[in-house]
Amino acid sequence: MTEAEVNPKAYPLADATLSKTILDLVQQAANYKQLRKGANEATKTLNRGIAEFIVMAADAEPLEIILHLPLLCEDKNVPYVFVRSKQALGRACGVSRPVVATSVTIKEGSQLKPQIQSVQMAIERLLV
């Protein structure tokens, strides 16, 4: 997918290297049971205040089905980022279906904490 084909509303969009890092972390989070899959569950984690960060797919059709999430993220000060492909996001989540939104959740004493913090920093750098 070229830059032109991505919906301009899907901001901030991760570049290829950051996307790979994010999807790797999503995959690890799935193994550590620190992942919620789907727009509805991502919304729930935000409302409950247990979201570390939100990953959304820029090719969700129509994109508006997930555009309430950035607003909630801004309210709750949770970093959020778009990746290009819902297929890739679904694969990283360990499901056979495309996934348009996921939330990596907070867990006490998690071994993923350092990776989560580095990804949060990278996402916040995108927004600057």
TrEMBL record:
The keyword RNA-binding applies. It holds the Pfam family Ribosomal_L7Ae. Keywords: mRNA processing, mRNA splicing, Nucleus, Ribonucleoprotein, RNA-binding, Spliceosome. InterPro entries: eL8/uL1-like, H/ACA_rnp_Nhp2-like, Ribosomal_eL30-like_sf, Ribosomal_eL8-like_CS, Ribosomal_eL8/eL30/eS12/Gad45, Ribosomal_eL8/Nhp2. One of its GO terms (molecular function) is box C/D sno(s)RNA binding. One of its GO terms (cellular component) is box C/D methylation guide snoRNP complex. GO terms for biological process: mRNA splicing, via spliceosome; ribosome biogenesis. It comes from the Eukaryota. It is found in: Nucleus, Nucleolus. Belongs to the eukaryotic ribosomal protein eL8 family. Part of the small subunit (SSU) processome, first precursor of the small eukaryotic ribosomal subunit. During the assembly of the SSU processome in the nucleolus, many ribosome biogenesis factors, an RNA chaperone and ribosomal proteins associate with the nascent pre-rRNA and work in concert to generate RNA folding, modifications, rearrangements and cleavage as well as targeted degradation of pre-ribosomal RNA by the RNA exosome. Involved in pre-mRNA splicing as component of the spliceosome. Binds to the 5'-stem-loop of U4 snRNA and thereby contributes to spliceosome assembly. This is NHP2-like protein 1.
